Amino acid sequence: MSGSGVVAVDLSDDETFRHGFPHDRFRWLRDHDPVSWHEPTARTPDGEGFWVVSRYADIAAILRDPQTFSSDRGGGLRVRGGTAIKDERTAGTMLNQTDDPQHQRLRSLVNRGFTPRAIATLTGELRRRGAALLDAVGDEPFDFVRAFARELPSQAICLVLGVPADDQPQLLDWLDAGIEDESTSILSADTMRRIRHYATDLIAHKRAYPDPGIMSTIVHARDDTGSGLSDEELIAFFALLFPAGAETTRSALAGAVHAFAANPEQFDRLRGDPSLLATAVEEIIRWTTPSIYKRRTASADVQLAGVPIAAGDKVTFWEMSANRDERTFVDPFRFDVGRTPNAHLGFGWGMHFCLGASLARLEITTTLELLVERVARVEAAGTPSWTPNNRLLGLKTLPVRLTRRAPSAVRG
To answer: Which of 95, 109, 121 is nearest to 212 (CA)?
Structure first.
């Protein structure tokens, strides 16, 4: 327990997050120990402690210095590395677990298919699917996570990745089970094995039968030298994008509705002034911050906020804490659809800025447009529950009731 009476929690234990993010603990860290050493516990992977960085300015400094704070193996200081507390064998292969020049190579090839124009072509289809999901729930209380927040992002990422509709339920079941199955990583090893096996077959099919879709474009992309992504790199890309695309936006959408139920005046404000739509999207991303931390490896001895960090140390930085930092945001624990400025870190920053940011913004925008057009009031209809995961934190269930607007007020 700290001197203030705030309990020092185990951030490597998923159970710490069963009831949401431990904001009290991070408020204390920001005020008293912003670059804090976390001793290893029985739950901590690899038997190692790690640094916990909680202030916005210090996290921004890490993101601006990818040479010192490596997403891979710290320049070879580790056999394994990566961006979770646990060292991963995918370091150096998966897009988010690479440093330049490999990161730039992978990103430039992936960007051949994952363009803003390609994402924009999904707008009409996502609106149609979102409207159908809302129409299906009726006027009785329902679980917004299961009926909508789980469905729309998973359908969107499956469209992007070229996953047939018949395969989607199985992939989602694996994802749901894997998030709760093993702490200290994004997904369990068994879930990742299943997803990688599925990706192997899908990529082989795309190689043999090209189509105009985004994933097929990436499979067949070539750089100026004629080199493309290997099967292993493509499998790693699928294994990154499918869980991240399905789960993080699910959390953002559920968190948005949860926030509107708790702050009905903000929903009324948005309904009354649709020009606030863009700022509302950014506030939802700040407020929910579905990927709550990342990890880097120090590639050299360095000082951060006056604290010496040794080469090879694991350095975790907590974007959820940064997005509640009173030094950066005015009244950060107030949900404000008109918040400006709002330089949140919900999508990261710099060379590892979220590849799927445009898709996530499109899904959130589409959902807000549909809610504003079709719903008069959002009300809680029970107690929500959280997914116990220290990396992809979000609502597991969210019972709500949506009071519909009069039919004449709803645009088709």
So the answer is: 121
Torsion-angle region of residue 130: left (phi > 0), alpha (psi -120 to 50) or beta? alpha
Give the Cα separation of 152 and 257 in Å (integer).
Answer: 14
**Residue 96: HSE in the Cβ half-sphere, 13 Å Cα cutoff:** 23
Above pLDDT 70, what percent of the chain?
94
Q: In the numeric block, which tokens belong to residue 224? A: 């100026």
Token couple for 124: 């009409």
- Alpha-carbon gap, residue 90 to 237, rounded angstroms: 11
Tell me if residue 254 falls in helix, strand or coil: helix
Positive or negative: CA dihedral 237, 239, 244, 250: positive
pLDDT of 143 higher than 80: yes
Query: What is the spatial distance between Cα 135 and Cα 370, in angstroms, rounded to a whole number?
Result: 10
CA distance 259 to 366: 17
Question: What's the token pair of residue 201?
Answer: 């077959």
Sequence length of the chain is: 412
- Across 27-36, 64-73, 211-220, 290-299, least confident range: 211-220
The proportion of the chain whose per-residue pLDDT surpasses 90, expressed as a percent, equals: 79
Phi, psi of 367 (to 5 degrees): -65, -45
The Cα 267–Cα 379 span in angstroms is 11
DSSP-derived pairing of the beta strands 314-317 and 50-53: parallel
Which amino acid, one-letter code, is at 87? Answer: D
CB half-sphere exposure, 272, CA atoms < 13 A: 8
